[in-house]
Amino acid sequence: MKYTEEHEWLRVEDDLVVVGITEHAAEQLGDIVFVDLPEEGTTVSKDDEVVVIESVKAASDILAPLDGEIVEVNEALTDNPGLVNDDPLGEAWFFKMKIEDLSALDDYMDEGDYKKFIG
Amino acid sequence: MSELKRTALHDLHIELGARMVPFSGYEMPVQYAPGVLKEHLQCRAAAGLFDVGHMGQVILRPRSGDVADAARALESLVPVDVLGLAPGRQRYAMFTDDAGGILDDLMVANRDDHLFLVVNAACKADDLAHLRAHLGDTCAVDEITDRGLLALQGPAAEAVLEGLAPGAAGLRFMDVATLASDFGPLWVSRSGYTGEDGFEISVEAGQAEPLARALLADGAVEPIGLGARDSLRLEAGLCLYGQDIDRSTSPVEAGLSWAIQKVRRTGGARAGGFPGAVRILDELDTGPGRLRVGLRPQTRAPMREGTRLFAAETGGDPVGAVTSGAFGPSVEAPISMGYVPVDLAGEGRNLWGEVRGKRLPVRVAALPFTAAKYKR
């Protein structure tokens, strides 16, 4: 598992990168009430805003961690945004990306570095 | 940055695991461990305890000894019938300015030999100066700084408070009384800011924490932060000063005409005589140009404060804006309030709100979003 400074986690699964947000992020955001997912098949560049999540407090974006194509989105979040609070590291993944070169993931933090990052 | 002030319950909030934030110059709990959604639902299902000790408590004591003199004096600043407010009763009011805008909204209670006011934290310094400048000859204007203020709200509030302060259950909505308790005399009003039945309780500062602990000892009561306070009041269709009302909005535009009694309106025995009366009476007589309305976004995306509203899906200038918007936990959908021209203010009217550059459908809806549960 890799982590971004935007509090996303990245997990490689069958050559795809699965993206979600960390427990820390979910806790900071508070109760999630709305998730706006991208279209499957969208080509994105690193740092594009691809998902909008709204908590009881405010709206925030999830950025594309890498260049690639969104091949699958987690429709369950549309009907049940609260899943992000209940199971951020498991069932509440946001999207799966196909990327050219998985070694691009190496630039991101591992769990130990992320824990230090959030202090 | 100036030092944040603390209420009498500060240490209790920390002990209860609150997340504290700066609010109107005070360090206040925005939420506790359960979070905004659960706290909101707790208040609607059983009871919630709110620290509102940041709000201003003000006594207007008539120099003549006759509370009618204080009432008459206060009527020069509010478009409300204060003289007709019976002892032991409370009423909603607003200070208006010469242009007919709103300087602050407040509660006024007739406590027999004096008037008791509760004003917004952010406005209290200005309110005190305003009162002293205009009423100083008639009344002593005293800010009460040695009392805390709690709100106990929700269907279980009556039974819980009756156990600690006998007589609470006998009050009706907007009654006020001084009730004896183990925590000294409590100045209790049956009112609140959630749409639920409930009470606001002024208590000696040193007794605020013991009282809060005693209330929380009841299994029906949980502490509620500012986050849920905001979603509760929004579902109840109640205005937040600085967002839904301010100097740029008149009471009539804000849909608060119900708070302006007949006696202060055109043809009434004490018509006018408050700041901005020309505009406010004219709007009462001929209708305002715009109105605060309830809004139901037709997608799941919340439309928050500042969202621009349009009459059509494409083209045209904005016709208004959202002043408060959030997800309504009891409504289980996003809800907003905002201002629109009167010809677009009819219930069911379809409008569009611009969210992240896209116009999404939103429908004008009746307020409140959740039925009020007041014990009248």
From TrEMBL, chain A:
Protein name listed in UniProt: Glycine cleavage system H protein
Cofactor(s) the protein requires to work: (R)-lipoate
Pfam family, one: GCV_H
Residues annotated with N6-lipoyllysine modification: 57
Domain Lipoyl-binding: 16-98
Family from the record: Belongs to the GcvH family.
Gene3D superfamilies in alphabetical order: 2.40.50.100
Cofactor detail note: Binds 1 lipoyl cofactor covalently.
Role, per record: The glycine cleavage system catalyzes the degradation of glycine. The H protein shuttles the methylamine group of glycine from the P protein to the T protein.
One GO biological process term: glycine decarboxylation via glycine cleavage system
Database matches in InterPro entries: 2-oxoA_DH_lipoyl-BS, Biotin_lipoyl, GCV_H, GCV_H/Fam206, GCV_H_sub, Single_hybrid_motif
Database matches in NCBIfam families: gcvH (TIGR00527), PRK01202.1 (NF002270)
Binding partners and assembly: The glycine cleavage system is composed of four proteins: P, T, L and H.
GO CC list: cytosol; glycine cleavage complex
Keywords linked to the UniProt accession: Lipoyl
Organism expressing this protein natively: Rhodovulum euryhalinum
UniProtKB/TrEMBL annotation, chain B:
Catalysed conversion reaction: N(6)-[(R)-S(8)-aminomethyldihydrolipoyl]-L-lysyl-[protein] + (6S)-5,6,7,8-tetrahydrofolate = N(6)-[(R)-dihydrolipoyl]-L-lysyl-[protein] + (6R)-5,10-methylene-5,6,7,8-tetrahydrofolate + NH4(+)
Domain Aminomethyltransferase C-terminal: residue ranges: 292-369
InterPro entries from the UniProt entry: GcvT (IPR006223), GcvT/YgfZ/DmdA (IPR028896), GcvT/YgfZ_C (IPR029043), GcvT_C (IPR013977), GCVT_N (IPR006222), TrmE/GcvT-like (IPR027266)
EC numbers, comma separated: 2.1.2.10
Binding site for substrate: 200
Keywords: Aminotransferase, Methyltransferase, Transferase
Entry GO MF terms: aminomethyltransferase activity; methyltransferase activity; transaminase activity
Annotated Pfam families: GCV_T, GCV_T_C
Similarity remark: Belongs to the GcvT family.
Protein name stated in the entry: aminomethyltransferase
Annotated organism of origin: Rhodovulum euryhalinum
